[in-house]
Structure formats: C-alpha cells, structure tokens
Write a structure and sequence with these properties.
The structure holds 2 protein chains of 2 kinds.
Chain A (H helix, E strand, L loop, with lengths): L2 H19 L7 H35 L6 H14 L8 H18 L2 H19 L8 H18 L11 H17 L3 H15 L2 H6 L5 H13 L12 H19 L6 H13 L5 H14 L7 H20 L7 H19 L8 H13 L9 H12 L1 H24 L8 H4 L6 H15 L9 H7 L4 H7 L2 H10 L8 H6 L22 H20 L2 H8 L7 H6 L3 H12 L3 H12 L1
Chain B lengths: L3 E6 L5 E4 L8 E6 L4 E6 L3 H50 L4 H32 L8 E4 H18 L3 E7 L5 E4 L1 H17 L6 E11 L2 E10 L6 H6 L21 H11 L3 E7 L3 E13 L13 E4 L3 H13 L4 E4 L2 H14 L5 E4 L3 E2 L2 E2 H11 L5 E5 L3 H11 L3 E4 L4 H15 L15 E5 L3 H12 L4 E5 L2 H10 L7 E5 L7 H9 L10 E6 L4 H9 L4 E4 L4 H9 L3
Parallel strand pairs in B: 6-8, 12-13, 12-14, 14-17, 17-18, 19-20, 19-21, 21-22, 22-23
Antiparallel strand pairs in B: 1-2, 1-4, 3-4, 5-7, 7-11, 8-9, 9-11, 10-11, 15-16
Helix pairs in contact in B: 1-2, 2-6, 3-4, 4-6, 9-10, 13-14
Classes of the chains: A mainly alpha, B alpha/beta.
Chain lengths: 599, 570
Amino acid sequence: MKAYQERYIANLKQILERRDIFHMPGEDFNNWYAECRQAEEKINVLKKENMDILTKDLFPVLDDLYNASDEDLKDLESFSDQLMDWKNNLDCGVYVIIHEAMLRMYRVAKNPSRIIKELYKLGMGIYYQDLAYRGSDHPLARQLHFENEMLFTEAASYFRYFSSISDDETRGYIIRSLANISISANDRKKRLSSSIKTLNIVTDPYYISLSPNLPWKNFERRTYQQISSVRSTLSRGDFSNEELALIMEACQVIFEPEKGSDKPNVRWLWPYYEMEYNLGLADLKTTLARMEDLIEAASYDQYDESGLYANVQLPVYYGRLLRDNPQLLQKDRYTSFLKDAYDKMMKTILSMPSEYMSEYFLYIFYLLADSYFETQGVEPYFEVMKKLIVRFSPKRYIRALLLSDILELYCNAILSNDEHFFDELPFLKEINAGNHKEALLQYVKDCALFFDFGLIPMNMDRILDTRSLFEREAEIFTLHTDIGYQNLRRRASTERFADVALGHHRCYDENGGYPEEYVRLDSDYRKMTDLFCIVTYLEEHYEEEKDQVFESIASKSHTSFSPVLVSYLEDKDFRNKIKELLVKDKGPYYKQLYDQLKN
Amino acid sequence: MAKGYAVKNNKNDEILFRSADFKEEKITEQIAMSDETTLLISGTDPLQRQIDDLSRKLQEAESANLAKEAFLSNMSHDIRTPMNAIIGMTGLAKKNIDEKSRLLDSLNKIDSASAHLLSLINEVLDMSRINSGKLLINEEPFYLSDLLHDTLIIVRPQMEAKGHHFDVKYHNIVYENLVGDIQRLRQIFVNILNNSVKYTKDKGEISLSICEEVKDDKCELIFNCTDNGMGMSQDFLKRIFDPFERVNNSTNSGIEGTGLGMSIVKKLVDAMNGRIDIKSKEGEGTSITIAIPLAYETMDIDASALQKKRFLIVMEDDDTSKMLQGYLNEFSIPNVTVRDFTSAITEFTDADFEHHPFDGILFGNFENRTGNTFTMASYFRKSYAGLPMVLISEDDWDKIEYKANRSGIEHFIPTPLFRKSLISSLQEIFTKEHSASATLQTPDLSNKKILLVEDNFINREIALELLRSTKAQLFSAENGKAALDMYLESEEGWYDIILMDIQMPVMDGYEATTAIRNSGRKDASTIRIYAMSANVFAEDIAKARSIGMDGHIGKPIDVAKLMQTLRGAE
C-alpha cells in the first residue's frame, strides 16, 4: 500500500477507537468528560486529515487511472481490501468509489475478466452499503437495491462463457456472483429460483471438472444455506412440491446436525425448529415451548453466538409469534414470558462488552426498531428505544438535550404570543387546556430524541465522524426520514413523533427537501415539524455560519421555513438567548448522559 | 281558401319567392321583414291566421321555455358548483395568506374549479358559434398516432378512476398522415369517450376501435366506442342531438354536463361531411360509430440507415412488443426482444463479449417487484453511458419527462404504434444521434470552441485526442488561472464549452468557474462549464452546481459519458 493509504487506514482505526470513549463512562465524571472532549477534538483533526488524503491523494489517482501502473492498481486493490475485509469494515464508501472507478476503466478497456471481478467487488460493496436501509420498502430503497442485483446479474450473465474463460479466479467470481443474485434480490421467489439454478451448477460434475480447484463444496453449502433462508415464509403456501422438498433438504443439511449436539448452538438449532413450525410439522404450542426452553437456558451474560441468539433474537421472534397469533395474548402466561424475555434481552444488550458494539449493534437496533412487539405488560417501545439510543448513540442523546432546550425556548416565545398556536396537535386535544404547556414541553423533549430515529441503525454517524458523505451515501441518508416514520408510527408509545420524523427535512412550501411523501397539509403535526426544521437548521449551521445563520433562515422564509416561525427570530433578545444555548458548555448534557449510562 | 306566401323585395317590388298557392290578387296580409323584404300572405282568413299563428307561437314558446328552463336549471347547478368552490377556496386562501402551502392548496383547487367552469362556458360558446355559422374546420396534416395518443391521455385517468376495463384496438390502418382538423377530431372523440365513462357504472367495459376505409381519394377514419353502460331509450335517441338534452333518470343524478356535448359532436361531424350512428339499449349499453372522410398524405420511408443498427426491446406488454418487433422485422431492422431486466443484462453482456453491441434500447414502461423501467435505465446509463434509450408508451410524456431524463431516457415515442410513424421517429432519433463512424455517439461540434482545463499533461493529451472526433476547435490550459486569463482575453462568445478539472495548482476549478461567472461579461452566464473530477463527495457535486457549473463528468473519463454530456451542447 502507499503511505497515504496506510495513513488513511490508521486514522480510521484511531477515530473508531475514540468513538468508543463516549459509550464507556469511567469512574469519575470530570475525567470522562475531559476524555470525551479530547476525543471529539482528535476525531475532528483526524477527519480533516482523511478528507485531505482523499481529495489530494486518492482522487487524483482515480482521476489518472488510465495512466496508473500495475503497482498502483495493486496498491489500490490492497487498500480497498483493507477498507472492507468483511470482519472489520472500516470504510465501505471509499471501497465502493475505488471499484466504481476500476469498473469504469475496465469497461472502457473492454477487459471481460476484470469487468467480472469489479462487478462482483462493487456488488459486494454496495450490498454492504445497502444494509443501512434494510427492511425499507421505499421506492428509492428499491431503486438503490436494484443496482446491487443488477451488478451481480451482469457478472453472472457471463456464465454462458464459463468454458471459454481460462482462469479460475474469474470463473470463481462468476459463480459467486450467480449465488449472490439471490442475496441481493428483493423477491423471495426469485431468490429461491436463483439459488436452485446455482445449486444445479455448483453440483454439476462438468463445471467442477473444468475448475477442480474452486471451492465447490463451500459453494454448495453456502447455496443450501441461502435456500434455507426462505424457511420463514414457507407457511404462505406458494411454493411447489419440488421447491418445498428442496427447502427441507437445505434445512436438514445446514441445521439438523445441531440437533444431535450435546451443546447445540441456538443460532443453528432454532432455524430447524422454525422450518418445522412453518411446514406444520410442529404446532404453535410446541414451538413456543421450544423457544421458551432455549431462551431460559441462556444466561443474560452469555455473549457468544449461541447466547446472543437466545437472548436477543429469540425474544424478538417470540414477540412476533404472539403478534401473529393474537389469541395467545388472552393468556397471561405468554405475555408474562415475553415481558421476562424482553427484560433479559435488554439486560444482555445494555451490558454487552464494547467489542460487540459495531456491526452487531446495528443489526440489533434494526431488529428491535422493526420487530419489537409493544403490547400490554411489556416495556413500551419508547422506553426500550430510548435506552438503546443513550447506550449506543450517545452523541445523538447529547444533541437531543441541546435541541430540546432550544425548542423549549421557542415554544415559550410562541405560547406567550399565541397560546392556541399548537392546539391542533392531537395529543393536546386529549388533555385539559391548563396542562397544555407542560405536555407540550415534555413532547418536544421526547421528540428531540426520536425525530432522527431512522438514522441510528444506518451507521451514518460513524461515517460522518470520518469524512463527508459520498453521493450514493447522501441518497441513502435521505431514507432515514421514512425509516424512522415507518417504525414510530406503528407503536402507540411513539406514533406522535412519526410525522416530525418524516417531515423534518421537507421544505415548508414542499418545493424541495425530502421525502415527497410528507404532505404538510395532511399532517396534524405540521407546526411542530416546521419548528423542528428551523431549530435543527440553527443547531447544524450555527458553528460554521455564526450570526449569518439567522439571515440565512430569514432568506428562506416561505420557502424552506414557516414565515410565522421565522418572524420570532427578528427579535434580537430571542436570538441572543438561542445563541447562548448554542455556545454554552455542554458539560451538563454530558452529566445527564453519564448518569444515564451509569444507571 | 288555401294559404299562399310570397316574399317581395321592397326596393324594386320584385317577387323573390312565391308558393304555388299564392294569389297576388287575394293578398290578405303584409309583414315587413328585417332584411328589406315583405312577406305577402294570400287567401287566409286573417282571424284564423292569427289564431293559428298564436297557437304555433305558444307551442314554440312553451317548448323553448321548457328547454331554457332545463338548461338554466342544469347550468345553474353546474356553474354554481365550481363557483362555490372558487368563492369558498378564495375565502380560505385569504384566511391562510401567511401559510404558503395552504394558500397553494386553495389556489390549486381554484385552478381546477376554474378549468371546469371554463369548459362549461366553452361548450355553450361552441354551440353558439356553430349555430351562428361561424364554425371553421381546419385542413392541416397530422399524425393519426398523435390524435389517438392525445385523446387517450385525456380519457385514461377518468377510466382508471372509475375502474373501467378499457380495450383499444386498431385495424387496417393504411394511412398514418391524415389531413383534417386534429383539435376538432379530438374534441369529438373525447366527448364520446367521456360520455361512456360517465354513463357506465364503475368497473364497466368500454372498448374503442379505430380503423380506416379508403374510398376514392379519401380515407375514412372510423371510430367506434362501445360500452356496457346505462344505455338510452329509443325515445331519447330521437332527441339526443338536440341541445340541452341529457339522459334523465334516477341513476345519473350527479353526472355533470350541459347537455350540449352530443349536439356539438353532431354539428362537427356534419361540418366534416362525416356520419354518426348510435345504437343503444336501456340498461345494456351504447355503441357509437363515427366515420369522417379525411384527405391523406403518402409517406415514403427509407429505413436503410436503421438497418445498420441493432436494438434491444425491453417490454412486458406483449401486444406492443409484438407489434414493435413486427414493424422492425418488416423493415429488416435487427432487434432482440426480452421481457425482463435480467434477460436484458444478459443480452448486453453477450453483445459485449461477441463484439456486436446494441445501438439503442427501446423500453416499455413497466414495473414489477424488482424494479421498473427507470431503475433499469439508470443502471444502463451508468454501465453503458451514452447509449440512446427510448421509451415507447401510452404515458403523458410531459408528466414523466423529468423522471425519464434523470434515468437516462431522452426520447419518447407515443403509442399507439403505427409502422411508418414509428420508423420515422426512430430514424429521427438514431440517424441524428449516430453517424456511421466508429464512435457512434460523437456529437458534431464543428462550429464550437472547447477550452480544456487540465493540469496533468497525459490526461490533457488523452482528453484532447478524444475531443478531436467532435470536430470542435480545441484549446487547453494547464490550470484555472491560465484558463481564466484565456477566457478574459478572448472575444465575448469565443468559447462555447469549458471542461474544467477541479484539483489544479495555482487556481482550482471552483475558483476559476466562480471568477468566470462573476466576470461581468455578456457570455459569463451562458458559457457551458462542466466539472471533470473523481471527487464524488455529495457536497462537492452540489458545490459545483451551486457555483454555476452545468454538470459533472466522473474520472477516469468515460468516452461515452463525455460524448453524452457534449451532445447537450450540439
């Protein structure tokens, strides 16, 4: 690797190490706060240095890729391999732009072997990048995801030239791409048919004889694993007999050996039970009992693969079963078990050592945000998510505290001028007018923590600590409004924050911003959303623009911002009070975070 | 005594007209007319004549009164409805004058109510114009496909809103270039189809058939619309062309209209020497056939240039893809049809591998679980930049043009497809875009001057080499400062395009662009400046746009993408 490449990697590692400080409060608050401040400063310095490396060292190389020597290209490959080694994924965005540039170059050079390899590598990078919005059914998400499927499809379409391609490496990329169509396809029937096609190829003696050195057995096992992944949808009843037989066979190959084990790994045992349930081979009662046994058998601090699966995933699946079978909610036994399982799950998550907190945390957050079953007797979704935000996204918590102070100031100014301004908010309609102000101020405090909810499982904060977003990442970023909205609106304890989550990046006149799905006039929360638009803009831009930020907001009155709300900023005293909040020492906020983390 | 009538010219007493029973010596009545003539009546008993006259006038007056009452009743309701909306929404708009989006919402509703009101007034005025003999029928050449596409765009949304199954068929289309009044023809067809939509219960069946019959030197365009709607009684059918007549029964209350539509249709068809035939049965449906004789123009097609091209058709719609394939085969234009995106990609890799590339993609507009035409086009735009892509569909291009362009689809051919207009459209797109040279997408910039700003010598040489094929006059500078100096020293309007590297010593591309845009010269805002950089930070691309650059070309330079960008400057 080149020196600049090594420096970029080293800086990234240092940034990530320093980010962990915010999650780990020491014994003494003052020391920890000082460490946090130092870490913040250092992160900013390293971020700037890495931005310089990208703009002054990497981009010129990509600019000049046609003239790059073989050694330069090898170094670039090594660099990209270090950025994404699929264990410690340091910077997927840079990995993607390197392979985009390489693919473009090899397309112009019409070099099929290199095109195939780059299609695969780019496909893998984009697959990882797209995990940021997993589960989203937004049209933009489908469009972005389509690109992933097409990259693998294009590489796999060279399969018909398999015998005329001479090198094993390229053949391997074709087979891997063929297999990956199924992991990237949106449609489960397509996923299955693609896996079946792959299985036929990877077990065909003719192709094996052409490249005996390829890891065919590994390909076969991976393909079976992929086929088994459709087991959760078996009960829909739309698979043919042949398909069902193959899915059962795949589950047997992959999961059955775990049944005979003395100490079965729950991660590999549960899917077999799941398959039996979805095929009607085990009834609901038996399945719930199996689940309960597995959950109870794991202690909360069992952080290995099996323990985490039993402590985190299984309670979520248990909740899903109750949700899908509402007759079970009539029996206290099940809801009571769910409550205990959820409590233990939270204990596991909140006490999880920091080495588990990167990739796995993102998955946990996604899983709980998407599937936590809020029902009578269990901790409300709001409380669970609040704990996760504090534990895993401490900077978001600090920001929420600052925003809620500014929002409170704004609300007070508005109410003193027009006490009925917020009367359209649905939750205020349900309470006595005398309590409106108190309820409103509590609302803005909670909403400040939840309006950017969709961003947390996207890992965008980690990227933004290391560099600015690339264009594709910026597009993905815009999905956070819809992801937050979809999750919040489905739970009684958070539905009142959903509209603000959806609309806080949309322009007041709906001629810009995103997403288009937010129709201001249709929302009972529009005045609150307008307020969040202004306050978050102030908070994000004040450091750079200083007093100019108020002019900037005034110039966007009627277009980006509500003119009624902008008019309050004409009052100099009011502006000064906001400025005081923006520049004041954040120590008290960190103290609140510290206390929360310690508890 | 039998009554007789005559008309006398007052100026010279000449009898201009006389009935057989008129007896000059038995004149009993003289009535002065407004055009300087006198009506002479003979042989009538004055008293009896007066009684007859009064009785007839009374009957006419009663009948006219009834029609007027019906008209006023209908119109007062139909006019009041949108007027109420306008008044109400204006009040709301005033109330929310500070809330821009609410204001906009009210204005949009006022806009829509006004448009509806205008269409009512237009119908009344049309009728009045026709009755006063002021109707003019234009004789201009038009494409049959345009007439049908425009008609269908108007009626489809209402068809869909009511969930009707709408089947459109074309037979025996011989002449596609017709001569006539396309606006009035559309008015007739839309009127008939709208009636079918309105008077058919939701989820009904409506079919449209279009065919031609050649008669001597005219081509008769035959339009038939059949529905399974409420139908009409035989009694009503006799009055259907009378002004202000509407089917009146309990099931159609709430259906808006002046009752002038069919009357106007009849007058227009008559003015075009056409015929209209209506078959209808109450409760079963209606079938209306209109035949209009039109002049036509013959169309000679030379498809030889297209025969050297190769097209990939990506369409789910069997009818359209079969028709398209059939027409291309008829003219020996090479093509391959696929129904899904995976097959499309496979065809492209085959084409690459076998070195027989496609020259363009013809897309239908479709969407399935995995993606849609625009996501597919976006992928091709990235992977095969510069490849011309055409959308062939029934959509309203105005509504989807922005989305299509963003995905890389720059051309549109409306359906229904007819062979000659299809080939002619393809010729227009592909023979203009592609020369026969090896670099198919190279634009002709022979009258343009390009300034290339690039600090790396080798990159500069490569780019200049690529740009030479455009025949543009080329200039180069090694940094932003040098480029700025060259620009400021040149005559205004000298350079047409600047291709600007971003990271350069002395002065970078942003700074140079800002200085050019702020130079105060007349050409400062019109000269096209494109950024060339591998820098893909979202904020940098946004910055390039915000300081006035016209676009961004990624590095390493992809020839096709460069040419595609430059084609915009042709």
